[in-house]
Amino acid sequence: MIRLTLGAALLASAGLCAASAQDGADAGRVTRGNLVMENIPDIPGEVRERLQQYQNVRSAGFSDFAPDGGIYITTRFGETSQIHHVAMPMGMRRQITFYDEPVGGANVRPDGSGQFAFSRDTGGDEYYQGYLYDPEDGSVTRFTEEGTRNGSFIWSQDGARMAWYRSTEGEPDWDILIADPSDPDSLAVAHEGTGAIFPGDFSPSGGQILFGRYYSITHSDLFVLDLASGAVTEINPDVDVAYGDAAFSADGDSVYVVTDQDSDFRRIVEIELATGEMRQVTPDHGWDVAGMALSPDGETIAYTTNEGGISELYLIDAATGEALGAPDMGTGLIGGLEFDAEGERLGFTFTSAQSSGDAWVYDLSSGALTQWTASEVGGLDTSRFVSPELIEYESFDGLDVPAFVYRPRGEGPHPVIVSIHGGPEGQYRPGFSSTVQYWTNELGAAVIAPNVRGSSGYGNEYVALDNGFNREDSVRDIGALLDWIATQPDLDENRVVVYGGSYGGYMVLASLVHYSDRLAGGVNIVGISNFVTFLENTSGYRRDLRRAEYGDERDPEMRAHLEAISPANMADRITAPLFIIQGANDPRVPASEAEQILEAVREAGHDAWYLLALDEGHGFAKKSNRDFQREAETLFLRDVLELEN
Question: Where would one find the signal peptide in this protein (predicted)?
Fold first, then answer.
């Protein structure tokens, strides 16, 4: 089934730009193992000890059903997340893969062989390779080509073939490949594509592939590829809409697809391939349908909605739209919907403020809901975990901006950490975060996670409000949040830190440019510091996709605007303390973005803390690196928020 909503994962580039430890040597740069740092003090033992529990929280993500009736999950019992098998609810987790690098989930071959495919990259470079695991002898075979980036792996219904996309460095056009993974010599190009394309579903006969092309969060196209002739037919042509998950019907005559056509929000519709006739399948919820799964017999659709950031699960009859029984999971997030081969069980992952994430299975016939895993939370008392309050505050132009507020115990006034999501078309959703719980319970800080204009989940109009020349309006939303904080008697307006990664890192830097006099500091993780250099240095196959959001730097007027709003060009206005965190192998935001803002701040007469991981990419995936990151962040927050040790 096609997954068009996972824009960030699908558009991640594979990269270049590892920073040199020699650069900045005169500023006291030191290297310890794979970590390069500046200005970070030694970590006190008591900081490391108290963080241990929060850093040893685990989660289990539902991956797929195993042929023996058990399930596959991804979880971490060491440095990285690996694939494990669970034979029964609450049964022992048996580790299957053992790599130094994290792996993607198991994608079970639907032929009863027990084989499954998974993906893995190296050092966070996101050049994912596909592998086939055979339980018969425990062997693993790589079936993709070295030096390429691969994803969206799908099986034909008989399990004879697999399709996926392949992209290469610097090329904007992706291809669709097809092969029997157990026979790498069978590899063939099924379609030489234009732009960012990726397969989503085989037709029931195996003779066609449903695939999509992504332009932006509000624009994508959907096609059918005939494998025998190579002919490509666009579904629902001549409309400018977005598509989410999509799948062939059981007879192959139509497709079910999540789309925003004729609506500000995404719904599920059925499109007849021969006539183009469209039927709305789900009611108008007033929120986006976030994910969909179609049962193998085509009779049942499971889907989730994103209702103000909270997931709701629904089951309906595909032909009539009649609502079927579905479990009430309470306040949290639901993902990874997957039916078993018989269509009798639905597996998924559920996480909430009190639950770090576990695999659940719902039996459609009996209505029984079963939790299959119970992930450890470091021995912490989850009853003390803080649940967020959803508020709205008014921005500079009267726009109501939603935000989740985690308030610590006690009267305050509490210091505040404003956590800004990435994307930019992302959305903060209140799942589990051991970091947030540490900040509230151990540091006594309130945490506010705003969904500023440009965030997804609130309709097409809202997500487009920061595009192009309106980029800094989202930064002004942070200024309005500072105004709101000043009205709250339990919050300390003089002790506020901004924190964010990726695009959220840009928002941190931009907030420091405009509001350093109102901020105690900022933590920028893998953030954009100059939009022009970012667009010029990001990989070729994702450059046009980012231009659709940020603007085209080749246009003189837009280039001038991008230069004018880039924090690296206004570093003299960043007077509040800054902590910069970066992965050397980052394929999305090159490490040069971190180096240039560090140098610009230094030239302006200020110092910054700096942490570079030589074996990481767009964020830290390895536990030892994450542990040190959290320890260093804690020291920084204690310092700038004037917290007692």
Answer: 1-21
* Helix axis angle, 434-441 to 45-55, nearest 10°: 130
Range 13-54+379-640 classified under CATH 2.60.40.10:
no
27 band by pLDDT with thresholds 50, 70 and 90: low
Helix, strand, coil shares of the chain, percent, nearest 5, are: 20, 35, 45
Q: How many CA atoms lie within 13 A of 255 on its CB side?
A: 29
Give the C-alpha separation, 247 to 617, whole Å: 32
Instruction: Give yes or no for a cis peptide into 413 (omega within 30° of 0).
Output: yes
The residues, ordered by sequence, that sit 6+ positions from 113 with a Cβ below 8 Å of its Cβ are 67, 134, 136, 159
> CB within 8 A of 20, min separation 6: which ones?
none
Q: To which residue do tokens 């009649």 refer?
A: 322
* pLDDT score for 540: 67
Look up residue 188 and give its DSSP letter.
Answer: E
pLDDT digits (tens, 9 = 90+) for 438-448: 999 999 999 99
Distance CA 243, CA 174 (A): 18
How does DSSP assign 104-116, residue by residue? ---EE-TTTT--E
**DSSP symbols for 391-454:** EEEE-TTS-EEEEEEE--SSS-PEEEEEEE--TTT--------HHHHHHHHTS--EEEEE--TT
The DSSP call for residue 387 is P
Domain edges within the chain:
13-54+379-640
pLDDT at 547 over 50: yes
Residue 401: Cβ within 10 Å count? 22
**How confident is residue 55, by pLDDT bands cut at 50, 70 and 90?**
confident
Task: Write the DSSP string, 16-83.
Answer: --PPPTTTTGGGT-EEETTEEEESPPPPPHHHHHHHHHHHTB---EEEEE-TTS-EEEEEESSSSEEE
Segment among 17-21, 42-46, 628-632 with least mean pLDDT:
17-21
State how far the Cα of 457 lies from the Cα of 451, in Å rounded to an integer. Answer: 9
CA distances 463 to 457, 460, 543, Å, are 8, 5, 20
| Residue 2 pLDDT level (bands cut at 50, 70, 90) | low
pTM of the model: 0.90
Task: Find out whether 507 and 427 touch, Cβ atoms under 8 Å.
Answer: no
pLDDT digit string, tens, across residues 564-580 = 999 999 999 999 999 99
Copy the structure tokens of residue 624. Answer: 């030892």
Q: In terms of DSSP bridges, do strands 400-406 and 521-525 run parallel, antiparallel, or are they unpaired? A: unpaired
